[in-house]
Write the structure tokens for this entry.
Amino acid sequence: MSFLPPWAQELLPIVALLFVVVFLVRRVPHVDIGHTPEFRKRRFYNWFFVGLTYAFLYMGRYNLTVAKNALGTRISTDDFGHIFGIGTIVYGVSFLLNGPLTDRYGGRVTILVSAVGVACCNIAMGLVLKTGALPLVSAYTVLYAMNMYFQSFGAVSIVKVNAAWFHLRERGTFGGIFGILISLGIYFAFDWGRMIVEHAPVHWVFFVPATVLLVFFFLDYVMVRDTPGEAGLADFDTADASSGDDGPRLPVAEVAKRMLRDPVIVTIALVEFCSGYIRNAVMQFFPIFAKQTATSVYVYKHWGMLNCVAGITGGMVAGMISDRMFESRRGPVSAVLYGALIGGAAAMIATLTTPAIGWVVVVMSLCVIGVHGMLSGTASMDFGGKKNVGVAVGIIDGLVYLGTGTVSFILGKVLPEHGAAKIAANWKAWPIVILPATIVGFMLALRVWNAKPKRHAVAAH
């Protein structure tokens, strides 16, 4: 493959994997919901454009990690933990507002708001870095928090849009799609971001995703619709928690109160707190660990690509198993993946000073992305229903990023700095901080093993 440019050589494994995924999905018997070929084609266009926008939002979110490594001592590990931690707390709390706004105005409007808002914040961060007009850490603390506010519309928007297009019995497959989109976003952020800083000034790691998001703003405006009816097709009963609920929209406070009284939604949200905690501890801090210690050089260099492969594999396998083996229940798959995460955290402790640590955390990324796709991407639709899914995602994904913020602050304080950070053995607090969350998440996932949404009334499809 030496005749290909370096960027194409890195992209080739992902393209090959995507072809394999498409082949497998086409070969596995589909759940027959009675959709016409015209419907399936239009639905593809709908989720494809909003989904790629969501993936590029990740590029405008995790580029902070790439910039931190490129800037060296200008942003310390403690500074990074502070900036990222505040941003993720803002992200989590923002769901209290943005979830209801998405239910009210629709996912199409809010994904447009998200794309423009994130683009503007990334342009501002790039300008601060280019001009040096403001103190870097202080400016990034504010701008990254603003960025994360607009980022918080992303997950709510994509789930809200697709809730009206996917039946309950086929949403496991969408959970796999959700995992693919997350995985592509991670690839864009880490590997494309790394190539940008290796071949251009660092501020371009913010300008490039901003430009792409502005392009997708216009594509979404043209292509995305909230419901099949708005696209000129027939709406249908999705058989979720909103099925048979034809009454007026309840006040946001009442919807939130009902969901917070639902033990299944609360348990899923707590599982996802653990998922966010683990995902950030692995995804954001492994590149910092590998850069400092020169451990697992291959995994570090291809971190985005390997996470993409792992996430696509985990998301698609988890989604198909959920729909076809567990009758569209999301708890069993999540519990199995959490069991693997416990083993992964233990393996991190054992392999911390060896090159194998990189492959261990890749497997952990596979598992945690699979859980996230099943719960935030799928169970939120099932138990929130297409009518109130914005509030459901707000509660569930909000807890994801509260977990992310929590571990950012903890690891920012306990991990080594400067010369001590160059010795892998000094990072032993890293896996020790992760292990308890894997155990708690597993125990909580077992509690929703048999959970399925209750319909308001039996409605014909």
Q: What stands out?
A: Residues 42-226+249-447 form a domain with the Growth Hormone; Chain: A; fold (CATH 1.20.1250.20).
